Amino acid sequence: MGLIPHWCSYVAGKWVDGDDRFTVENPADETPAADVSAAPVDEIERAVVEARRSFDAGVWADLPAAERAETLHAFLDHIEATGEALVDTIVAEAGQPVFFAEGTQLRTGLAAARDTIDLYLSMAHEESNPVPVDELVRGRLALSLRRHEPVGVVAAITPYNAALMMGFQKIVPALMAGNSVVLRPSPLTPVSSLMFGAAAEVAGIPPGVLSVVVEPGAAGAELLTTHPAVDMVSFTGSTTVGRAILAQAAPTIKRVALELGGKSAQIYLPDAVEKAAGGAMAVVAATAGQACVAATRMLVPQDRKDEVVEAVSRVYAGIKVGPPSDREALMGPVISAAQRDRCERYVEMAREKGGRVAFGGGRPEGLEHGYFFEPTVLDLPDNSNPAAQEEIFGPVIGIIGYRDVDDAVRIANDSEYGLSGQVYGADVAAATAVARRLRTGAVNVNTALFSAYAPSGGYKQSGLGRERGTDGIRAFQEVKHMVVGELR
Q: What reaction(s) does this enzyme catalyze (predicted)?
């Protein structure tokens, strides 16, 4: 296994090796995956100051969009060329199967990043506003223009479960829009994100325009969310941390974009119940349930609930759990001992509140090392159960029965979250009608799509703003109104 050769932060065009180091653990075997240099807080401060300088000087923002696009394609080319070492790094620090690290994080992430560049270039960033004729006459107006301009300095904070993909999702639209960016990845999986610094160096992105800072704690992240020179914070992670970021950003009135937790529902209409077992597989395979969009609440007709619980249990019994080195393993570990403990705790809470463990619920036999947890099926009596209300972020699915379609919609919407959802039905029109009633930022009807052209984001406590799509690009832009008239 050959990891990427970068172990310290990239600040304003230079690699910075601090005095303090921290160990990144391999969650599949609990061994050290990497020994990383922690960025001193004053270097994170310097990353912000240099980002501010680079933006205000216009060394990147004032370039024609086509030139920014050319440089960013070179940036992506370098990442693609180092793909083998990058995949090995993701596998080592995140414990994810190779097929997910390579196929989803790297290949899908790169494709979406390139499509984001194309999407930006296809959009109008200066548009005329319609103006009533009488205002044209009275105001001697020649033009009323709406300009979309870069926000300025963006702090991008990414999660451990998809560090590379989330990095693409924030860095590329932000840079394409002309911003300067300071990226701070999760301390649990920081190494793969250092490739963004290496790619910036090779592609010739001007110093200060993109910095990548790594740390074992949260002092640097707090600096980024409070620093007056930062104009925007883009964060993906838990709702708890998202609330803290909102409070930290409030005194300086920063723009904040948050993609937070979820407790998404997958609804099976009576004519599609036989599809439930396949939908359950998608919750845990590859990610071990560590995905904010994972549909961990399965809603099925009450009179067929026992049938579904049995079918899903059979499917989960067939999932091979193991380290990424086992090519037959469909599911790896969760990220840490604390996360495994969280899974155990919520399974026990589900039992205490009347739920039944139909399959799994503990640590798999034969895996003495690593933070493994069995794919788990919970038969839940209703939606008030803690396992139905709280985001567990592990390989645990809860199955709940509904009386009729109205009851299914009520249960799905009975959540503080609203990030994603799924509806399955042979009658596509009926399934789509149900999807329209769900209070969530995205709904998949009988299929799924991940695209640079389609937005994602949450309702309620699942976040603010959108990523990907035109909305995701506009999130990194301010709107300026310009009125132009003749001098008389």
A: an aldehyde + NAD(+) + H2O = a carboxylate + NADH + 2 H(+)
